[in-house]
From TrEMBL:
Pfam families, per database record: ABC_tran
Keyword Nucleotide-binding attached: yes
GO molecular function, one term: ATP binding
Full protein name: ABC-2 type transport system ATP-binding protein
Annotated family: Belongs to the ABC transporter superfamily.
Amino acid sequence: MPDLAIRTQALRKTYRTRRGRRVVAVQGLDLEVPVGGVHGFLGPNGSGKTTSIRMLLGLVRADAGTMMVFDQVVPEHLPDVVGRVGAIVESPKFFPTFSGRKNLELLADAIGTPRGRVGEVLEETSLGERGKDKFKTYSLGMKQRLAIAATLLKEPELLIFDEPTNGLDPAGIREIRETMRGLGEQGRTVLVSSHILAEVEQVADTVSIIGHGRLLASGTVAEVIGGSGRTTVKVAIDSPLGDPAAQREAATRILTAAGLTVRAEGNYLFVDGAEHPADVTRRLAQQELYVSELIPVRADLESVFLELTADQGLGGTR
Ligand SMILES: Nc1ncnc2c1ncn2[C@@H]1O[C@H](COP(=O)(O)OP(=O)(O)OP(=O)(O)O)[C@@H](O)[C@H]1O
């Protein structure tokens, strides 16, 4: 088993609302985050990501289960590991009229980190040039990167970011992604929660997908995609004889009867579940329907996510 930065077992949390209603936020979560690299913690809105992160950081008490950070049981031994962990769970407060650099210098003084480290973390988050500008002039993306810079001051080995790209424009999202990738490449462990899958797919080495507070799948992005058993092929049928739409309908009937899932999109059929693409060609040819194009479509994390969470009536949100 690889060294783990985080491990939870059978973790549970139920909230009680003021009206006495019980909300089960996390119900038996087994999470394993390997040391080094970026780990995407994925799930639809309300699936329990924030609650899990808050429990790990000792901000919310778990009802049951165990949690370990770098082999230390938390929250009991959180003081022993807290120096190795940096987290952004909500927007930190900075002084708007001070520069980014000044804000970080004050923080460095407060946590006993040499001020020399401030220049380094500004560089690491690509804020070097803007460090002397006032915080209030920063874009949302720069503010978020300053928050990351602040967590880097004490050189944590594990960084935990809860939905760090929320509210950012595409350029801001790209900058955060690059920053995370850089941190992972340095050998740090980055746990990043998100419901925006396309982004995480580009940056994560490993992922855990949760739904209703439970683990649905985990592993490298390739394993999770591969393990979904999806082989989708995009098929065009182009016989000179007959109406193309009628041929697509006939093909849909034949393939569906063979247990495959078929979705029509424009002039194409997307066929899921074939063990081998040639199966599709063969079944259609037997009924005198001839395939003019057959393109294997790589499953992406998003479609796997939607498939996994759809089973639970969760649906993915973007
Ligand atoms: N303080 C609270 N009191 C009551 N219910 C809560 C509280 N915090 C969260 N919940 C509920 O617990 C469930 C899990 O919420 P949580 O915020 O952990 O999910 P999430 O995956 O982080 O969602 P999001 O992506 O929307 O942030 C939701 O149903 C939410 O409404």
